[in-house]
Amino acid sequence: MGLTAFLAALCVFICFGGNWLWGQTMIERPLVVGMVAGLIFGDIRTGVLIGASLEAIFMGAVDIGGALSAEPVTATVLATTFAITLGVDTKAALALAVPIGVLGAFISMFMKNVVMNIFAPLVDKAAEKDSSKMLTGLHYGMWFLNYTIFSLVTFFAVLAGAKPVQHLVGQIPANLMAGLSATGSLLPAVGFAILMRMLWSKELSPYYFLGFILAAYLELPSVAVAGIGIIIVFLQWNRDKQLMEMEAKQKQAVNSEQSVALKTSQASIAEQEEEDFFA
Fold it and tell me: Are residues 90 and 222 in the same domain?
């Protein structure tokens, strides 16, 4: 189990730490994390399925300032680890991932708002000395410390929590497990609902209902619905482009007419002034 805990911690360090090493590269998204965890534990299919489901859950969570709604990396790694190494049902693992993500958010806020602030005087001192080497060392040192601590949290969670979770799953009644599975199925809908609250508008509502009809009544797979959406986007873009070109031509024609009218008016004024002069 020690090797499993180490591999889980390594996955967190690679995805979470690597995401912020050269800027936000988006490798901390659950879809990527699940694939990496599945690759490490030898079951990419399960990793991708869990990552995609958690992506649907966490995609609508918005982090504002220092407040984090959830930390998806640790949640995805632990859910994938429990599902692959312990044989926990995928839907039950998704239900367990949500509270883990909330706990990870508290740890992240503590690290960023408390622990990292300890190094603020050193950063100010390096800035006063105009020492780029010291600033670089502090930058990578704090980066390594922050994500090493997160990796250790994951390591001990897997090491200490694997057997209790396995025992808990074994003791869960069948009806309660069915409830966890149903909850796990509903969580992606909650994530999409949170995202739609930010994106909803009257202009976009017809496309939403079109997608709903295609998926619910025509029973088209999500890939087909996405393909239809891409086609609609392309057609809309082409139509908007044609309208913009027509407007540009109309403006050009109006400007040309105004220019001709201005030149004609100026010529008439000049002729009138000339006639008045000789008169």
Answer: no
Highest mean pLDDT range out of 54-68, 108-122, 217-231?
217-231
Token pair 């006063």 is found at 128
Helix (H) or strand (E) holding 96: helix 90-110
Same domain, 193 and 273: no
C-alpha 3/C-alpha 155 separation (Å) is 9
Residues 75 and 52 occupy one common structural domain:
yes
**Highest-scoring range by mean pLDDT, 100-114, 138-152, 177-191, 254-268:** 138-152
Range of the domain at 212: 201-279
Domain limit, last residue, from 183, 200, 217: 200
Highest mean pLDDT among 61-75, 177-191, 216-230: 216-230
108 and 38 together in one domain: yes
Look at residue 66 and tell me whether its pLDDT is greater than 60: no
Contacts of 54 (CB under 8 A, 6+ apart): 30, 31, 34, 72, 75, 76, 79, 94, 97
Which amino acid does the sequence have at 142? M
Distance between alpha carbon 73 and the CA centroid of its chain, in Å? 12
Angle at 143 between CA 137 and CA 144, to 5 degrees: 90
pTM recorded for the entire structure: 0.59
Total count of domains within the chain: 2
| Cross-strand partners of 64 | 67
